Amino acid sequence: MTGSDEHSSTSRRTFLTGVGGAAVTAALAGCSSSGDTTTDTTTSGTTSGTTQETTSGSQEFPVTITQGQMPTTLDPQDHRSTPTDNVVLHTYEGLLSRTRTGQMQAQLATDWERVEDGRVRFQIRDGPTFHSGNDLTPADVAYSINRIVDPDVGINSPQSDQLAGVTGAEVVDGERAVDVLSDGLNPIVFSLFATYGDVMEQAWVEENSADYVSTHMNGTGPFEFSDYEQGVQVVLERFDDYWQDPADVSELTFNAASESSTRVNQLLAGETDVIVNVPPQDISRVQNGENTRVDAVSSSRVIYNGMRYDVEPFDSVEFRQAMNYAVDMQSIIESVLDTFGDATSQPTLEGFVGFNEELSPYPYDPDQAEQLVEDSGYAGAEIELHSPVGRYLKDVEIAQAVVNQINELPNVSASLNQREFASLAGELTDGDITTSPHWYLIGWGNATFDASQTLIPLLTSDGALTSYENDEFDSLIEQAQSESDTEQRREYLEQANAHANEQAPWIFLNRQYSVYGVSQRVSWRARRDERIDAYAMSQT
Amino acid sequence: MSFARFLSKRILQGILVIWGVVTVVFLLRYLTPGNPVSFIAPLDAGPELRARIAAELGLNQPIYVQYWNYLTGVVQGDFGQSYIVAKGLPVSEVVFGRLPATVEMAVAASVVAIVLSIPLGVISATNRHEPSDYFATTFSLVGISTPNFWLGIMLVLVMAIQLEQFASGLPWPVSMVGMLSPPTSGMARYQGSPVLFYDGLRYLLSGNLQPMVRWFQHMALPAITLGTYFTALITRLTRSGMLDELGQSYVQALRAKGLPETRTRYRHVLKNTLIPIITVLGLQLGTLIGGAVITESVFDWPGLGTLLIDAINRRDWTVIQGSLIVIGCGFVLINILVDALYAYVNPQVVND
């Protein structure tokens, strides 16, 4: 609403801000070097001298965020979409959370410990209240977890697989604590709860209809629900009784524009403050805008080319390795992605538990590739890459570059099949490897920052989207998942990644970047997990 | 055949067409590759969750049972529930909630078209082979060949973004240019709620001009974008229709009778030219409602078009079906109305 309400005054203000642009930029640079600010809202103090409108106390600081899509629902446990998460996570909180760079931290739980295999205990914070005015209780926490994992408690939550292995939760007698039960050891249970498992108020959910719960919100977070118009906007307001410091942002509006050029135009015209997915061709427009800047961060999404191990010519390790040597990832990152991407060497991304630092990306070596194709016995192979169009940052352009580079090998001919994402995903996710294309481009986001949540679904024999089968790999993962010693477990995962690097079930492509366009009036830094955290925003 | 009988025959035909639309739209889901469950379920969902989703939505039943359930639902105005776009909400609520915004844009585009095209066509026809005629024919050629999405983006870039910067760089009538330079996109709002024409009118009657101005600012660019093709089309129709009529013998008779030329042109010739144009206008309104999809995306306009695109992108089948059925019904309804109007004006049609 920042732009359209008082249009003429906005243009005056943006003009004034433009004049002070240099000062603001300097201030931002100062902010960015001050380190992690996810839970630290005091940064506004360091820059308050630059703008005269700011007054101390609960000032008015409305912010608008424009995503590509509107949330599918406001029920935090009945969806699996990032645009929805970005809205509901301002209102609902989980037991643990993550910093901007992915480290685990306390949220509604103050302490967490493993009691025994398959049983962990969370101490629930005393003090947070729901926006309805009621206090947070351990019973609410247990109910919320059960609502996700148990279809008999209200809904068929699509998040049941996100809390993998969790079978239920119960309140611990006489203590302000909740025990979470898992089937087996579940070594990553804390990691899961740092990303998933939003806490709702049991009485509120039970008293209201499903319709109401999916169009209203009542959590413990820094913003409370104000208005929802389906397909148009969601408006949240600062919750003054938040258990931490109240947010700087006074009113938070979410809307959506599916066209990236429309989002960029809205940002340039001052109608919104943060936009998602600025396409590389528009980056300079945003960077050169009087009142706008680009903020990019490597995300938790890996882009790769799966090659089915069970079909010719991809059943040959040499052939798969050859494909990796044939692709010049560095040039793709520079020319296609405008440097917004990192080359990968393994399925797991840097900074995740289980990332193997000793591995490096396959170098670009077409001669080696040609030789390996000869060795594989599949010289003259014709292969076809299935790629979605418009699902990931420059997906089809990356696929085109890969195909062209492989085509330069004299003994392989590659072609591209542009696919609609939904039908490609349908073939990949039906749990049957034989219906998948032989060679495909896809991306996988893993917000748990743990290797297992990539390796298990994508590369184990019975993974939901697997393209690979190998007993050695499976046993490494199995050992990791039943290992309670974190160091030993990390070791197994690193070995699994080394195995993947060597056996090359994928062409390892890039780590995707999240590229945001941000108004100069907002001080904020992008997060790795694709979440937009308005609580960390302050006025410049 | 009486008028009433003619009308009831048309309505019956309309109902048959709608039934056809519902059937085709229902079958589309089965003809397109991919199982609906795999679009609804998360990528890594296990078979158990998939089975639960299928059971919950009745997708595990035989197709004729699903068809029968869907058909009986539609007859009662129940289009099912949205799976994805607005999870859990009834499709009818979602679709009909978006309808007014789209109808309003289509009507605004028609108004732009009518206001521009008929005078242009008349001027062009009455000044044949003169500069004004060349201007009008060139305009209509360009208008017909310009793609909507490109025009929309260009209008935003020039009018909203360039002019905005232009305004803030200039010391004088900054506020005035600022007011004229339109917002890039979205729907007008006043005190937090969206402003449609009706709301603007309501405020206007109570003495508040501002919401109406805002409505106009937000509506202008989309209406021009959507109306341009249409303007060009009607200009051509008016021009050729007018030229046809001017060659008729009754025009000679009127002129011979000594009727002033302007009276001949506007009272008689234009009136006769307008009859087929009204038919085209009516039918085009249906096309506009269906065809606003791209313009709505460019202008982030929360209408049926953006809903349909969103639903297609995310494979929310019930919403796709609901939107298509409503658009189809719109067409049928407008056709019946145009037919009825025509039959009323020209009773000969009834007997054909």
TrEMBL record, chain A:
SUPFAM superfamilies: Periplasmic binding protein-like II
Keywords carried by this UniProt record: Signal, Transport
InterPro entries in alphabetical order: Peptide/Ni-bd, SBP_5, SBP_5_dom, TAT_signal
Source superkingdom: Archaea
GO biological process: peptide transport
GO molecular function: peptide transmembrane transporter activity
GO cellular component terms, semicolon-separated: ATP-binding cassette (ABC) transporter complex; periplasmic space
Keyword Cell membrane appears in the UniProt entry: no
Region (Disordered): 31-62
Compositional bias ranges of the Low complexity kind: 31-60
Pfam families the record matches: SBP_bac_5
All copies of domain Solute-binding protein family, residue ranges: 104-463
Cross-referenced PANTHER family: OLIGOPEPTIDE-BINDING PROTEIN APPA, PERIPLASMIC BINDING COMPONENT OF ABC TRANSPORTER
Similarity comment text for this entry: Belongs to the bacterial solute-binding protein 5 family.
Name listed for the protein in its UniProt record: ABC transporter substrate-binding protein
From TrEMBL, chain B:
Highest rank taxon of the organism: Archaea
SUPFAM superfamilies: MetI-like
One protein family per Pfam: BPD_transp_1
CDD domains: TM_PBP2
Species this protein is from: Salarchaeum japonicum
GO biological process: transmembrane transport
Phylogenetic placement of the source organism: Archaea, Methanobacteriati, Methanobacteriota, Stenosarchaea group, Halobacteria
Keyword entries, A-Z: Cell membrane, Membrane, Transmembrane, Transmembrane helix, Transport
Membrane topology according to the record: Multi-pass membrane protein
Keyword Phosphoprotein: no
Keyword Lyase among record annotations: no
Name the UniProt record assigns to this protein: ABC transporter permease
Residue span(s) of domain ABC transmembrane type-1: 99-342
Regions crossing the membrane: 12-31, 105-123, 135-161, 215-234, 273-299, 319-345
GO cellular component: plasma membrane
Protein family: Belongs to the binding-protein-dependent transport system permease family.
